[in-house]
Amino acid sequence: MSIQFVIALYEFVILLFSLSFHECAHGWMASRLGDQTARMQGQITMNPVRHIDPFGTVLFPLLMAFGPLIGFGGGLVFGWAKPTPIISRNFKHIRRDENLVAAAGPIANLILVAGAFLLLVVLMKLIPGGAPAVYAAMHFGVILGTTSVPQALALLGYLTIVVNLALFFFNFLPIPPLDAGTVLRNMLPYNSLNTYDTIARFGFILIFILGRIVVSFFIGPALGVVNGLLALFLRA
After folding, report:
1. SS3 state of residue 192
2. Which of these is catalytic: 8, 20, 23, 44?
3. Is 23 a catalytic residue?
């Protein structure tokens, strides 16, 4: 089995659970702020089946993950899930609480990034063979002829960082139904909302066109910081 196929499989599975964690965070925050809609509909769960959008969670990420194996596309893997149901009138402070619910998703992705980074540090410092496994994972590779468990964990941890950073920056697009779109809408003056909502009707087309551009712009420097921090631990 080629390393490219293994990476694509890891990325897709990681994406499923990362999107579930992202949407679960939206529902949990809404519940804390007074709207129990997501809880009553069973959306505060890590079960990917509850969050799947056929195109955004399955088809689009599969094309991005496995496309390079057939000479199509390649590089970053990201997507979106079925939006968590929210009824804003249940909030006490509608605009503020909508923004907090929107922010919960990207923050959840950063929590996964931090957890994966901690896993890699533990591997480097406490597990035999962990340091070279992490170094190989940072270059999307493996070391042949060595134990497989540290390498599997290192690749899992590093790809979790990559996928969740991609999701974090993807949600920077200020286009509904993405999270930054909700925040931007709540910041606009009332007389601008009709214009913005008209543009938002083409949201998924804009997401499809701009998503890779935005994620590619931000993720390179972000991974540079992550790799630099990991290199410090490797040398320590």
Report:
1. helix
2. 23
3. yes
